[in-house]
Batch of 2 targets.
Target 1
Amino acid sequence: MRNLLMKVSYDGTNYNGFQTQPGGNTVQDLLEDAIELLSGEKLKITASGRTDAGVHARGQVFNFYTASKIPVERWCIALNSRLSEDIVVTDAVEVPLEFHSRREAKQKTYRYTINANQFPDLFNRRYQFHHHGRLDITAMEEGLRHLIGTHDFTTFASRKSTKPSHVRTIYDAWIETDTSMCRPGTRDQGIIHTYVTGSGFLQHMVRIIMGTLMEVGEGKRTPESISVILEAKNRATAGPTAMSTGLMLWDVEYDITSFVKPDFA
Amino acid sequence: MRNLLMKVSYDGTNYNGFQTQPGGNTVQDLLEDAIELLSGEKLKITASGRTDAGVHARGQVFNFYTASKIPVERWCIALNSRLSEDIVVTDAVEVPLEFHSRREAKQKTYRYTINANQFPDLFNRRYQFHHHGRLDITAMEEGLRHLIGTHDFTTFASRKSTKPSHVRTIYDAWIETDTSMCRPGTRDQGIIHTYVTGSGFLQHMVRIIMGTLMEVGEGKRTPESISVILEAKNRATAGPTAMSTGLMLWDVEYDITSFVKPDFA
């Protein structure tokens, strides 16, 4: 038996999220179907975590146990030829049997993309939330800084969260603005990418952070109010849950650099 | 009566090309339907030229005559709300009645995008041709330079072309390679964007140029052979017609800077 660890990118637009659920049509289902087609094994994969319906991933990570003799370097191409073109397995390595892609994840980074130009960016429309009207990006950056550190994130968690603890650590959070598509003489503000890196994330956490941060950008809240509502530990004090379309699981990091090929971790 | 000039972007994936044809489902049809919904006028638009099925446009240009009193600055938003999300009108200006978007086009630029990385770029898969195997980009750049100037482009035109003359001028042609997505330790070569600017283009011209240029990149032809086959004026001497998916009408330029808003031309 071998334990294989893989990295996968997907366009979440057409799926009911990553994790298997009664309605079917999930990324996990398609990955397990492709593995079965390839190795004949009906197995379950373990991912670093779930992503919601419509959320994308640049670097989701999963592992599974296989008795197949297929060399590890053959798996990516073999799986991709059995997958829909909106799911691409980009890396595969063998890891020790005890390795678990959720429990050993050290940190995750999500990216949320807002298009703050007048018009939708046609060619990236599935991966952006199009915001109408001016945003104060400096105020958003300031608001974001109040989230860094170890906090109880109940304010920024779905009311449906069943996790025993809502304490998480945000290691870093920053905004990168791409103004290359801005048209001169317009009020175009560019494509605003917000990155949040943390130990783990609660259900809807990044989307509620972004819904609240956009209210900061719109001048409906002050940057300092982020600290106040964080203290309140009350979902009702935060803004709306931003649309899933702008969200992408950017990267998952592990302490496994010693036994994987250099470009994986 | 007013003559309105507009710029439109579209994702050509789901359409039978730009120009109205018996099978329907063209970008032109959808634009004319949206105009009719807005102004009540059943009219025909004139574009800078056609694009084939599956070809995209960043900056296609068209004009039409309207009796509508709707102010020109209202047209973009009004049309976009009546169009599918894969067609976006980005600019609208009033031009003199004699202005004709095809006859007065001074030059056009097309961009063809090759993904020369090991894996498809998931999030841009509709806008790239994924090339397997190594390409000699320097040789492709050298080959491209042989096309610059005024030539009879019969070699690079569809055999179905009915144009009385195949003489066209290529003003400039260059390659820009984006290696930001390349993964260290792999044979990834990056995203190769080829731009070709000319007075006008024959049917399939850019796609035949690219199919031939990829053979140069693969070492199947020398860069100098481009000159030789150009002289031959024979379609059979060129390479295959590259897939439409990588092609985008990048820009159409006019001598109209004096009477349009600065960001249009």
Target 2
Amino acid sequence: MNITDYMQTTGRQARAASRAMARADTATRNRALLLIADAIVRDSALLRTANQLDLDAAKAAGLDPAMIDRLTLSEAAIATMVEGLRQIVALPDPVGEISNMKVRPSGIQVGQMRVPLGVIGIIYEARPNVTVDAAGLCIKSGNATILRGGSEAINCNRALAKIVAEGLSGAGLPAHGVQIIDTTDRAAVGALITMPEYVDVIVPRGGKGLIARLMAEATVPMIKHLDGICHVYIDAKADIEKAVPVAFNAKCHRYGTCNTMETLLVERSIAPAVLPRLAELYASRQVELRADPESFALLAGYPHLAAAAEEDWKTEYLAPILAVKVVGGIDEAMDHIAAYSSKHTESIITEDYSAAMRFLREVDSASVMVNASTRFADGFEYGLGAEIGISNDKLHARGPVGLEGLTSLKYVVFGHGEVRN
Amino acid sequence: MNITDYMQTTGRQARAASRAMARADTATRNRALLLIADAIVRDSALLRTANQLDLDAAKAAGLDPAMIDRLTLSEAAIATMVEGLRQIVALPDPVGEISNMKVRPSGIQVGQMRVPLGVIGIIYEARPNVTVDAAGLCIKSGNATILRGGSEAINCNRALAKIVAEGLSGAGLPAHGVQIIDTTDRAAVGALITMPEYVDVIVPRGGKGLIARLMAEATVPMIKHLDGICHVYIDAKADIEKAVPVAFNAKCHRYGTCNTMETLLVERSIAPAVLPRLAELYASRQVELRADPESFALLAGYPHLAAAAEEDWKTEYLAPILAVKVVGGIDEAMDHIAAYSSKHTESIITEDYSAAMRFLREVDSASVMVNASTRFADGFEYGLGAEIGISNDKLHARGPVGLEGLTSLKYVVFGHGEVRN
């Protein structure tokens, strides 16, 4: 197979299909989603057989247990996929909504209509559930999609591609509305991210290595997430009864997520009261604390204590490790955040109105919180209904990205024969 | 001067200044704008002397009259600049606005706050008025700015830079909030568009050659405008009394603007009635018509008639030339537009409700109109109050870009000590 030709053909087909996907009405797009859900239920044995081929190959290749786990399409995983599709059907249709319609002095009426982006390329790891999840969100938002899943899931993805194409055709939508790249050749990714004539945006879902590579090579714009170095700042005027559970939850609810707190900043005057109480909770989970000299002194005797190095302020641990620093107040806290944050999520714990307002306004991160755990930075918790990813970028979409992030606004003008003078 | 070092320093200074620019309140940013306006009035003789140096050099270098014209800072141009700044002061402040605040089942309240993008790089031609105009919009929207104007305007831009810095300082804002690249070395542009660590977005204002070069090299995202191949489609059910003035205005109001119609599509059954009437008007302006065979026949005897070639459908004439084609109906019109439009602005002339709704929904352009001249695709006509440019991109901002396009939305969360379960 000539990869360049194959990808050009795939792109051309996606672009052609995107017009029919965009003009399809809500009922048609929902019907396709329900047909896909039904077909997954019907073919679940077949899907598991295909998945078994992938699993056998993965085990033979010595893949690590975490990857095998993600690759596995259990009965429960299939049920979750199907339930996810049905939830997407229930979401309101973002496409076609018109807002801000205003009459202008010239007589024209101007507003903005929400429309699909066009063709979305999704690059992800060997997780077959993402194939269905991403296809579902793109169909719902009226986009055509090109999916590139991890090569270890190729058999399962092929089987899913057949089901998705069947669902699209059954609803009268073009089968090329969702295409899965049917090659494990890595050059396909290079082609996908450099054909802006056919692809409007790339959504990479994967680790830092993948994203860094894409950033260096892509000429198609990306909605991307790099890392989450999230901070909680406990202010002088914090309510300790809020500060302690929030700072515990932000670190210990889950360690491997991007919205987990990685650095705790504590104001000097409150630190002696708050740090020992937090230390008790962290000790119950064997969290290692990497402390600056001041917090180190206050934490003396903590069983998993280490001195923080400069590198700790820049590290996304994704592990039971927390950097801790005493600061002189909100300005020093915000300076630290400006210097080291990945602009993902930061939270201030305070009862001081003006401090809360300053933090909300001045901290330049995708999510800025008062008196809440950073773990809330999530599409479902925010009420988006679904999440295609979390964006660290500033243009287009910041923070959790739902269906709206897969659309844009065009201007619409209702006239009555007006001409410009 | 080492350009790399100079640009790194400029970028670092802009990033540092951006925090103070973003947190400044509305009154402070407006005060800076008014101080700049006053200083321009005070120093107008000085500015004109600096401009004369540029003009002398430009004339000695043999620049064409159109460029000399754009470079000239007349008294009227100075007055317009000052008036523009005062209009920007009067615009509502987009920064800090919170929308969509919702209470979630967890107890947190989530909404979105409009915030500055950070550092904006603007690259433009030798037009000193753009220096003030762009600086004004960036100050108003709370951004730090790096301006790179055409090298022919360097003396005038230096004088303006001094005035802008004085205005910023006078209002208590960092003088580095607006920096003008003080070198004519073209390598400075290459550096500016490849330092995403310091620059959040590039807004190029210039011809296609400039944009094409930037697109090939930039790693910083751009809000850009490539070209305007705009269409008017006169439908079978058009009101001829609207169709004729709109199609005349769309072509002849101004020839050199990006929202000027370049191709006219006319439905077959109405063409014999509408084309001769339009031809009379176009003839009065010596517009050359490049016609497909069917319209060619209907236009027989028109004094400036030529047969359209394939290339004509792809050409932005920016001149008194119009491509004309007869089509079978709305589907053929939309197919032609999908194939050849630059996705800038298209308008349908029709009294048919369903045709109007289909055109609005299905045509994938930044502005889609019914019964109005394409010339309305403009920030002022749309009521944005100001315009930094027009975007052909799909992400972030489409169509005319005003102050909002220089901002983005971050999530803000008001909590009460909530933790995630």
